[in-house]
Each structure stands twice: as structure tokens, then as C-alpha cells.
Design goal:
CATH topology of one domain: Amidase signature (AS) enzymes
CATH class of one domain: Alpha Beta
Shape: globular
Number of helices: 16
Largest sheet: 8 strands, mixed
Strand order of the largest sheet: 4-6-5-10-11-9-7-8
Length: about 500
């Protein structure tokens, strides 16, 4: 019999409604798995008392036949989402013991749907990273290992804690945020499904800001159907977020089995980057073959400004970060390193509170916004961003979806790229364009590397057409098969 914590969300929901499994039993199974998996460091904060109280309330509603969409489903929440009464850190020392007096819109929707809070998942500090090694609370460990090699691997970033928790069966789903690939890239490296919806589909209210024009909330799950259910419950207009789209939310779960017959799948030639491993290219071809088998048609498309996406992103994102992070000054909340001189207090607080990667990006952002460089860098980057967005508009005249690799490699060893920031940034080469254009992107596990590590394929769609992504993702998933979740991996962990 499958352990309760290893069920898919849909399977668990069915068992809960049939009363063959209680919410308390399900939550207890997840909490026990979290306790055993301490070596993962997937959580900053675990909330067992809150989780069991949520489960008791869920059982009461289930007994009365009043179950909501996510009644009794235990979730992990990326510690970038403010949770009322529960410490929220953004994986940074500068927020200290900050406990928000309010709830983010995304988590508010999850609790309203009946979900259970297991705890706050670890992440790269302020969501800045591609490996989850920049957290002030230590790196997250990927539950996967290379064949014949027990070295610890990164789970990807910045939502590495969320991805690792789902991959290891510590929760039935998790929230994440994606600024340049921070849901899709860790999903690829951990063998999970990750969806970054269209910019504006999910509210950003109550999410600690990194780069406001790029940040977007999304979800992780074990399969495409679960991801569709979670997105359906987290999406929707929010008057508290001026960038929130005033559009109805489709029933994404119903769209999963719609199929792809007659759809045109775009293959962008510019995504065949120099040095891309042969196994990534082979998986890409296999993904297209699967979609053709399901009734889709392959179409060559061009995204000519793709090569400029990464440098454009690393001007715009740090610029917005330098502005957003100016609020952390040791005066209103969080860490304060006291000094008689206010300016010195600012300097000491920020030096002690921000990690190396955050300081690097704030410095870059401040530089490109400074007098004499604003026009040369930031303004020019915004113009290139518009060209990148236009490329996608033109491409979608010829196709309905775009298929590409999610990441240029499988999971790598911890510390392998820590001293190579440029190499680390290149992990986002396939994911960044969608953020610059505000498009939805879905990563689906599709195969294994030569070292038996997960590899993902990415589907990009038109604005607010997540439903078609789920349909195509399901066709890939059906042929690739579900990736395993192990409840015994930690026994071999070094």
C-alpha cells in the first residue's frame, strides 16, 4: 500500500472524501517524513501544531460532507510568502524573527480552499539564485543522487526547498515564485512539475518582492493534474495588487485531458545554444515526437532576440531589486545593528543582514540606475525587453505552443558553481525569456540523464493560456511516465 505522503494530491483528495484516510493521518505522515528528512534542509520553519489543528478542522468538515477543493491537503509554502502569525524570512538574516500581521493573497486562497500548512520552505536568499545555496539557513539538498555517486546535489533555485519537498514526498504540493526560472528550473532538476503562470494571473500581494515586473507566484506538484488543481485555487484577480489581471480563472483541472490534436508546436531554433549537452537535444526531439504521436504538428519558429535575454534580465532584475531592498534598513522591522550614526547603522545592518549574492545584485542594480548609466544600461535593457516580447507575439502567429528544454543541464554537485556566478546565471538561459515577456511556462519531467538524474521539458504559451500548457504537459507526462518519489532516500544520505 502506498504511504499516505506519497499519494498524489488528487489521490489523497479522493481517499479523504471516501473516509479511507483522515486528514490527520495524512498530515502526520508528511510531518514524520519531514522529521526523517532533516538532511534535505528543505524547510526553514515547520509548523506541526498549526498543521495538526488544520487537519482536525478538515476532518470535521469532511465528516459533514462540506469538503472544499483542497480540504486536508498538506502543503509547503515558499518562505517568500507572508503567512500571518508564522515567521517569514525570505531566507535572509535581515528579516530576523519577522512575523507578518497579514496573509499573502495566494496563501489566503489556499487556506480558504481547505489546505493545511506544513511549514515554510527554504529558498535562495530573497529568491536570488539558481541552486538554493545562498540561503542564510544553509543550502537545500536535492533528494536525487547521481548513479554510483552519493555526493549531494543542488535542487535548483530559488524555490529549491519547495521542489525538494515535493520530490521527496514531504508534502503533496508547494508554492514557489518565478522571476527568471525559479519554479521551472528546480522542477526540472528534481523531477517535479512546476508552473509559472502568466504575469498577473496570481496576485503578488504579500510576497516579498525581488523584481516586481518579473516576479510571479506558481506551484509545484508531482504530476500535471495536481499542478492544474493548485493553480486553479491560487489564481484570480486581487484588487490589492495593481498588476493582477481582471480575468476569470478557467477550470485548469478539466483542461488537463483536452489533448493536443491539431495544435502547432513551435520549435525555436535559437534555443539550440552552443555547448548544450547531446542528451538535452535528444530529449527535446523525443518530446516533439511524443506530441506528434498525440496529434500535434511541429513548426519551426524564430525568437531572434533570445541571445539578449539573459544580459537584459541581469540588468532589469538587479535594478528592481536594488529599489525593493532599500526598505530593509534596520529601522522599521527585522535585523538592526545599532549605532549612534544613522548612516552607519544602515551600512552595518545591511552588511550583516544581506548575503553575498544579494549584495552583488544590489550593487549591480544601483550601478545601472545611477546617473550617467541609466540610459546606457537600464533604458536600453527595457527596449530590448520589448523586442523579446514582440518575438513571442510573432512566433505565436505560427504556433499555439513552444517546446524547449527547461534547463541546459541536470542537477550539479553542491559547490560546483559557487565561485562562478556567470556559469550559475546560465542555468536560466531557457527560462528567462518567458519572464521578460510575461508568458506562462510549464516544466514537466520527461527523462533521465546519463547519470540517472531528472531532465525537464518546458512548454511556453500565449498569455493566460495555461490550460493548453496543461493539456500538452499531460501528453508528455503520459508517455514519459511519473517520476518516483522515495521515502527511503535519506538512509543513504551522507
Amino acid at each position: 500500500m502506498t504511504a499516505a505522503n506519497l499519494l498524489t494530491l488528487a489521490q489523497a483528495a479522493k481517499a479523504l472524501r471516501a473516509r479511507s484516510l483522515s486528514a490527520r493521518e495524512l498530515t502526520r505522515a508528511c510531518l514524520d517524513a519531514i522529521a526523517k528528512a532533516g538532511a534535505l534542509n528543505a524547510f526553514v520553519t515547520v509548523t506541526p501544531e498549526r498543521a495538526l489543528a488544520d487537519a482536525e478542522r478538515a476532518d470535521a468538515r469532511l465528516a459533514k460532507g462540506e469538503a472544499r477543493a483542497l480540504e486536508g491537503i498538506p502543503l509547503a509554502i515558499k518562505d517568500l510568502f507572508c503567512t500571518q502569525g508564522v515567521k517569514s524570512t525570505a531566507a535572509s538574516r535581515i528579516l530576523g524573527e519577522f512575523v507578518p500581521p497579514y496573509e499573502s493573497t495566494v496563501t489566503e486562497k489556499l487556506w480558504a480552499a481547505g489546505a493545511t500548512l506544513l511549514g515554510k520552505a527554504n529558498l535562495d536568499e530573497f529568491a536570488m539564485g539558481s541552486s538554493n545555496e545562498t540561503s542564510a539557513f544553509g543550502p537545500v539538498v536535492n533528494p536525487w543522487r547521481r548513479q554510483g555517486d552519493n555526493r549531494k546535489l543542488v535542487p535548483g533555485g530559488s524555490s529549491g526547498g519547495s521542489a525538494a519537498a515535493v520530490a521527496a514526498g514531504l508534502c503533496l504540493g508547494a508554492t514557489g515564485t518565478d522571476t527568471g526560472g525559479s519554479i521551472r528550473q528546480p522542477a526540472s532538476l528534481t523531477g517535479t512539475v512546476g508552473i509559472k503562470p502568466t504575469y498577473g494571473r496570481c496576485s503578488r500581494y504579500g510576497i516579498v518582492a525581488f523584481a516586481s515586473s518579473l516576479d510571479q507566484a506558481g506551484v509545484f506538484a508531482r504530476d500535471v493534474a495536481d499542478a492544474a488543481i493548485l493553480l486553479r485555487e491560487t489564481a484570480g484577480h486581487d484588487a490589492r495588487d495593481s498588476t493582477s489581471a481582471k480575468l476569470p480563472v478557467p477550470d485548469f483541472a478539466a483542461a488537463v485531458e483536452a489533448g493536443v490534436k491539431g495544435l502547432r508546436i513551435g520549435i525555436p531554433k535559437e534555443y539550440r545554444v552552443e555547448g548544450m549537452p547531446a542528451e538535452i537535444e535528444a530529449l527535446w526531439r523525443q518530446g516533439m515526437a511524443w506530441l506528434k504521436d498525440a496529434g500535434a504538428q511541429a513548426v519551426d519558429v524564430s525568437l531572434p532576440h533570445t541571445a539578449m535575454a539573459l544580459p537584459t534580465y541581469y540588468i532589469i532584475a538587479p535594478a528592481e531589486a536594488s529599489s525593493n531592498l532599500a526598505r530593509y534598513d534596520g529601522v522599521r522591522y527585522g535585523l538592526r545593528v545599532a549605532d549612534d550614526d544613522l548612516v552607519t547603522q544602515y551600512e552595518k545592518t545591511r552588511a550583516a543582514g544581506f548575503g553575498k549574492e544579494v549584495r552583488r545584485r544590489v550593487l549591480i542594480g544601483t550601478y545601472v540606475l545611477s546617473a550617467g548609466y541609466y540610459d546606457a544600461y537600464y533604458l536600453k535593457a527595457q527596449k530590448v525587453r520589448a523586442l523579446i516580447a514582440r518575438d513571442f507575439v510573432d512566433a505565436f502567429k505560427a504556433c499555439d505552443l513552444i517546446l524547449a528544454p527547461t534547463a541546459p543541464n541536470a542537477a550539479f554537485a553542491m559547490g560546483e558553481k559557487a565561485d562562478d556566478p556567470i556559469g550559475m546565471y546560465l542555468n536560466d538561459v531557457f527560462t528567462v525569456p518567458a519572464n521578460l515577456a510575461g508568458l506562462p511556462g510549464l516544466s514537466v519531467p520527461a527523462g533521465l540523464s546519463a547519470e540517472a538524474l531528472p531532465l525537464g521539458l518546458q512548454l511556453l504559451g500565449r498569455p493566460f493560456d495555461e490550460a493548453t500548457l496543461f493539456a500538452a504537459g499531460r501528453e508528455i507526462e503520459r508517455r514519459a511516465g511519473l517520476f518516483p518519489v522515495s521515502d527511503r532516500w535519506w538512509e543513504a544520505a551522507p
